[in-house]
Structures are given as structure tokens and as C-alpha cells.
Amino acid sequence: MSENILEVNDLVKHYPVTQGVVFKKTVGQVKAVDGVSFGLRAGETLGVVGESGCGKSTLARVLMNLEKPTAGNVVYKGQDISKLSGGALRRLRRQIQLVMQDPYTSLNPRMTVGDLLGEPFEIHPEVAPKGSRRAKVRELLDLVGLNPEHINRYPHQFSGGQRQRIGIARALALRPEIIVCDEPVSALDVSIQAQVMNLLEQLQSEFGLSYVFIAHDLSVVRHLSDRVAVMYLGKIVEIGTEDEIYERPTHPYTQALLSAVPVPDPTQRNNKTIIRLTGDVPSPISPPSGCRFRTRCWKAQDVCAEQVPLLEIRRDSDHPSACHFAEKREIVATHEV
Amino acid sequence: MSDILVSEQSAPGPGGSGRPSGRLLEVDDLRVEFRTRDGVAKVINGVTYHVDAGETLAVLGESGSGKSVTAQTIMGILDTPPGFVTGGQVRFHGKDMLRMSDEERRRIRGEGIAMIFQDALSALNPVFTVGFQIAEQFRVRRGMGRAEAKKRAIDMLDQVKIPNAKGRFNNYPHQFSGGMRQRAMIAMSLALDPEVLIADEPTTALDVTVQAQIMDLLAELQRERQMGMILITHDLGVVADVADRIAVMYAGRIVEEADVYELYAKPAHPYTLGLIDSIPRLDEKGQQLRTIKGLPPNLMNIPPGCPFNPRCPMAQPVCREKVPPLLQVGPARASACHFAEELVNRV
């Protein structure tokens, strides 16, 4: 594989929790992202999975430079993007684009599709001179499988799946190198979800895009990703290739997560490994000491409360895993099709 | 409108005898339309299904297929207007609920049929404590005193495995996590020991690990109480884990009904086949996702013939002309496709 085009180093994003109206004081920190590092290689899809509140969407916002990190940095081709501003930041934005989850709220209802897709070119006029913009927009619509004749329609005249295609077309307009997809298919029906996933794959091979694909659906992530990072309470607990994570998971959280996914095959009902976690995810304001997963972990020992397990390759793990007791365990009986 | 007529039988509540079919809950050729300013949307176009004690019927469908509206009609909580029942029956113990008085229906709600909803936060009343909302049923419906009702409510919270139920009694819904709220709602719906539980997308808003907890809990409670359960969902994974029978809905019709094993092994309707082929699977590598082309139909303008014909890879001229009826294609399975036989008999 080629080298990293995006590197994330020890990224931290804390949000202050304040009390009082006039004399505001900070009483705590929501540790949304708390020390995340990974690299994104050119042309690959990195899946980020985790349950709600694990910080995956905050990660997307920081990657897009919509939020400044509390600490750490995001480096795009040797440039620390969190330090950029003005024209340099604007030039960078051409290269990293975002597809959002909700196709109903992420499109301005008062703008036609032509305006929505033409707007990126107004901000970056160097990409397409004024005269050629309508043609460009038609081209984009055609690319994502929409009828170019619909250029004057408004978002409400489209279905959810079609709106998500508009969102993808908008992200694609400036021909970026990286697209961050934040739950792009979770609001869609099953039959439409598959259409959008196939479109994302097709566009990737056509334009050599790199995706950071954030989702909570482990099946969707497996289908699209080359590598996968599993997040829990603001930290990556395990990262590896798709095979490593799905066939040889070593972190107890990954194992529990995989075992909880219902497989659409009733004959598998009774021969599944089922790990049932008890309780809920702790609050990110005061995460447990040591390993954050220890309060729900069946392997927890004293050392888990005392020492934060580092994300590293361990004795029984061929890929980085943040567990003192990392150990391979087959959860999903994978077969090739 | 038939639903306003008062039933001639005055025997109240569940157990009343209508025609002796022995079925616990039956929906028979139900038709519902929504009359809006823009036109009439035919949301349910002849839905027939039944559920017996101790069994789980999964109603599977995408948004707009009419699966939730059917449930709302069974419960008698359909918004009227715009929704109107234009035909069919909903029989509970053989008695048509659509012809009952409001009072009779009220008695069935909770004790006969109860329902849990997708979004527990909006289903619970934010200004009363969770405990109060559960205890209220015991006081109103069972005539219990304050202390006894509280004891029973705590017992219910215990049964749905809410830790420290006693301490949690006085919490408000916003103080509960998503999974706990869903548990509280289950406690509330089961408080009066219903014979049928309708679960409308009970885990869609939850994370997978919590979803697994809730589905386990529901299965356990159902076994203990021998309830009939109607599980409404769009998730083919959840269905495969818990259902006994499945009814697949499309454009307000049942397009296929079958035993869970048969349905996944050999779908008898092209729509079901398309759905199964279009979901990514956790246990498959290098899988090609086959998609169903196009979009679900506009309910104000359902295409003539089979409503699935514009998206169907098998469509023939007959599909554009005749609506295929839901016909038996094997022991205990039915399909509404002109070519069902061919689908079932293919190798």
C-alpha cells in the first residue's frame, strides 16, 4: 500500500461543561476524543466503528477542521491542518470533503440542486470557470446516478436515497482526495442503502478516493472497509485490516460488539458465540480509570483499573489492540462468497 | 364508517366470543387510507395476518410499507383524520375490535394488547416519574392503593432488569439511558399482563450491544408469559434471530408470508429475494451487493397490477395488468407474485 496521505496524531477534543449563567465556570470536560492516532493511506477506506457517544462524529468534525483539536494534530501531506487559516485552509478544504448522515437536514431546502452543487464552484472558482458550471453540475448529477434534467428541482422533490446522492455529488464536486463519510447510509432503507454503498465503491475506484467511513453498523463497515478502527469512549481500542478485526478480534469490546450483531440467517441462531455486555457506556465526563472498558468487561483485573492499556501489537494479537489481556477469539464464522 | 358502529354484543373485554376461529389476534383484509390535502394515500390495501399465543410474527418492511399503520389500527391509535379505516376487520379472540365501543377497546388496551414504540423518550411522559407512569396503571385499572401500586411497579422494573429498581422509581425519563428507557417502556406495556405485545421497531434507536440486551429480554418475557408478539422491523438480522413467522409488506400489502427458515432459505417473492441480497453480511467476505433498482411507489399513485412491478427483475406484461393475490405456495407459506411457483421451485 502507498503511504499515508492523512495522519492523525494523539488527537484530543474535550468540550467544557459549564455551570452558571453570569459567572460561568468550567466544572468538567466531556472527553469526546481522547488520544486517537491513525493513518489513512491513499485509495483506501478506513472504517471507524463504535456505539453512540464514542466520539466518532467528533472525530469527523476535527478531521474536517470544523473543530479545533484540544491537543494533537491532523497532518495532511505533511501540513498540520489544525494550524491553517484563511486562504491556506480554503485550499485545503478542496481536498477533504464530508458526506453527512441526514440527507434531510444537510441540504438547504430553499436552494435548487443546481445551486447546491454549484456552490462549491463559487467558493473555489479556479476549479470551474463561471460559464462551465451548469455543465459541471449536470455531469455530477449523472455521475451519482441522478437525472441531469432535475437540475432545477428542490431537495424535497427527492427521496432520501436520492438526497444522499446529492450529498455525495456535493462532496465530489471539487474532486477531493479524501471524503469523510459520517454515517452516510444509516438513515436509508435497506434496498436504498445497498444502492448508495455500491455508488460509493464505484466512485472510489473511478477517482482513487480515500474514505474515512464512520458508521455504527459493523456489517456495512466490513463490506466497504480495507482497514477498521474500533472506538470506545473516545479511544481506539483496536485497529487492523478488515480480516484482522472481523476474523481475529483480540479486544473484548470488539468481540462483544461483533457477537451482538444479528446475522440475517435463522439457521445460525443456535451456533453463535454470544457475549452479552451488561450495563451502559459510562459517561465521557468521568470515564473509568485505567482501561475505559473495564466496567463492562468480563476479563477485568486489578491492573485494568490502574494502567491504561496502550494500543500496540501484543503477544496474542497480530495487530494493535488496547487490552492487557488481548487474545484472539473467533466470533464471526466468515465464509468467502 | 364501520368503526363507529357499536357492537351488538355487550360482553366486555377480552374473552368475548365472536366467530370461533381460535386465533388470538387476526387482521383480516384491512384497508386504511390517509386523506390529505394533496390527495388520498392508500396506505394499507388488504392486509391479513394473525398471531397466536406464544408465537412471534415479524412484520418486515421498509418505510412507507404500512407496517406501523397496521399496528396503530390494531391498537386503535390511528390518527383520524387523516387516517380512515375503509375496510376489513381486526379480531381479538374472534371479536371485531373495529366495531367495539371506545370503552370496550380501552379495556383491551393494556390487558389484551399492549404496544411498545421505537422512540422511548417521546413515548414516556417527561413530566412524570417513570415509577408513577407504571404505577398509574395498577391504580386506575386494578384499583390498587398508592403503596401497593408502587410495590408492583418496582417489581415490574425489577423484571425488566433495571438495576436498583427501588431507587430508580422516582427518576424521570430523561435521567434514564436509551436502553433503560426502552426497558421502562417494556415494563409499562407488560404491567397488565397483555396477551399480545406489539413491538414497533423496539431496538432501531439503540446501539447493537444494547439491542441484543433488549431482544433477549423481550424473548425471555414472551416465553415466560406465553404472549403472542408482533415484531415490526426493517432489520432482517433481528428478524432471523427471534421470529417464528414473517410477513413481508410492500406498498400496503403482504407480499409474502412464511416460516422464518423457509423465507431466508427460499424467498417466494422477488422483493424478499431482493431485500436479502441487498444487505451486507457480517459473516461474508467479498460479497457483491445486489440492489433493488428504483424507489418504493408513491402511495397516492400506486402502479397498476403488482405494486412491485416497476422494480422487479422478473416483471412480465401480466404483472402490469393484474394484482397478484396472496396465494398458498406450500404448507404454511404464501406469496403474492404471479411467478411464485417458479421462484419456489428453482434450484
From TrEMBL, chain B:
Its cellular-component GO annotations read: plasma membrane
Q: Which residues form a coiled coil?
A: none
Membrane protein topology class: Peripheral membrane protein
Which stretches does the entry tag as region Disordered?
1-23
> Residue limits of the ABC transporter domain?
25-276
Q: Does the keyword NAD apply?
A: no
Nucleus: is it a keyword of this entry?
Answer: no
Q: Which InterPro entries match?
A: AAA+_ATPase, ABC_Ni/Peptide_Import, ABC_transporter-like_ATP-bd, ABC_transporter-like_CS, Oligopep_ABC_C, P-loop_NTPase
Per the record, the GO terms for biological process are: peptide transport
| A Pfam family recorded for this sequence | ABC_tran
Q: Where in the cell is it found?
A: Cell membrane
Entry's family note: Belongs to the ABC transporter superfamily.
Protein name (Swiss-Prot/TrEMBL): Oligopeptide transport ATP-binding protein AmiF
